[in-house]
Every structure is written in structure tokens, then in C-alpha cells.
Amino acid sequence: MRNLFYHSWDSAKECIQKSEGIMVTAGSVEEHGFHLPLGTDIILTHAFAEAVCEKENLYYYPCITYGQVWSAKEFEGTISISPDCLREYCLQAVESVLRVCPRRVILYSFHNGNHKVMEEVMRELTDRGLGGNVFHIKNAGIEKKAQHILTSPVWNGSVWHAGELETSLMLYAAEELVDMEAATAEFPPVPFFYGKKPVPWKKFLKSGAFGDAACATREKGEALFRLICRELEEQVRCIKGEENNG
């Protein structure tokens, strides 16, 4: 078990100081269509963290629960935290870990809305002289790398929220929480100002899920999970290599 939530303080101390590093994770509680739970991003962040940490001899802290979810905040049940609030929360969490002197700290979130905040946390730590062994990994552009697995297009070329990709991952990681009978296939027209100004999703999206979630399968989810794990593991190994070369 690589999740420090389940360790005693003295066990956690040993894990932090003797492992290859600690992953500080962040998630979100937001709508994921009619068929996926609000906690989808937390479930998947933990699943990837557990797999990568096991492979690379890291440990991880459970997700900072609430994230930056401006686009989806109008869907009932979603909780959205301001970037400033999340940034300060992440900073204090990382500073707490650094006091135990880990080899390195790696920030990770499956929820894309948290990445900008994580980059700001990195800058703040660097300005304070604390960022030397703090890093950030993410699954950027995964929809392009997964084209050989997916059988339907992603919305507007890059948006896969709660669609085939994410639903397939959930079918693999937590199938019992997925209601495929409620899965939708929704490809709304792209709003005129989309990408040029903020547009809340609920103004043009009914279900909260982009694309064809109904064609998701567990088999696709397993292939996607392995693909993303390889990408994240490679980023971790790159971090280790750059440190060793430095």
C-alpha cells in the first residue's frame, strides 16, 4: 500500500525518507455526466498514483479533495475552489512534506484544471528557495497518444471530459461505480467565443459529458491505463535521471 493515509506517523517518516520520493496529489469533486461519480478524478488520480509509486518506489498522499473547476461549477453537486485558495493549500501541504526531508516531491493530478495552480506552486517554492527537489508530472495530450485505442472522436479535438476515454478508465479502475445505462453521446456545437473567453459548460452542454461515453469499454480502459502509467513512469525516470546527471 503506497498511500500514506494508511501508514502510522513513524512508518510514514521511514517511507518519506528512504523511498525515491513522495507524490502530493490533487483531485476534484465535479460533475462527470450522468454515468460517472463526482469523485472520478480522485479515484483515477489515486489509481495512477498507486501504480506509478509501486513501480518507481515512491509513496503518495491522498488527494487534496477539492480543485479548480470553474468550467463545470454550474452543474449541481460540483465544488469549485478558487485558484488562490488551492494554491495556498498545495503550498502548505508541500512544505509539510519537505520538513521530513524526502529525496524529491512530485505533484500530480489527473484533473487538468489543477495543473496551472501546480505550476504556480512550483514557481512560489522556487522563489522561496525550496523548489530544488519539487517536480510536476501530468498526462498532457493523452487524447492524441490514445487515438489507436479510442473509437470515437474527442470533442473539439481535445476535450475528453467524461467521454469515451475517461469512462473507459473508470470501467477498468472502478467498474462498480459506472452506470453505462446512463452514458450519453453528446457533441454540442462549439460556442463562437469558446477558447477566446471563458464559457461555462452548462451553457451549451446538457449531460456534462463530452463525446461518446456510450462506446467506452473496460478493455479500452485497461489499454489506456497502461499507456498513461508508462507516460507517467517515464516522466518520473526522467526526473531521476536529470537529478543524477546534474
Task: Please provide a written account of the structure.
This protein has 246 residues and is an alpha/beta fold. Helices cover 40% and strands 9% of the residues. The protein has seven helices and six strands. A four-stranded parallel β-sheet has the order 2-1-3-4, sandwiched between helices. A two-stranded antiparallel sheet has the order 5-6. Strand 3 (105-108), helix 4 (115-127) and strand 4 (134-137) form a beta-alpha-beta unit. The radius of gyration is 18 Å and the shape is globular. The two termini are 31 Å apart.
* Net shape: globular
Order of helices and strands: HEHEHEHEHHEEH
**Largest β sheet strand count, sense and barrel closure:** 4 strands, parallel
Structural class: alpha/beta
Radius of gyration: 18 Å
Work out the strand percent.
Answer: 5-15%
Helix content range: 40-55%
* N-end to C-end Cα span: 31 Å
- Number of distinct helices: 7
Low-confidence stretches: none
How are the strands of the largest sheet arranged?
2-1-3-4
Mean pLDDT reading: 96
Q: Concise description?
A:
This protein has 246 residues and is of the alpha/beta class. The protein contains 7 helices and 6 strands, in the order H-E-H-E-H-E-H-E-H-H-E-E-H.
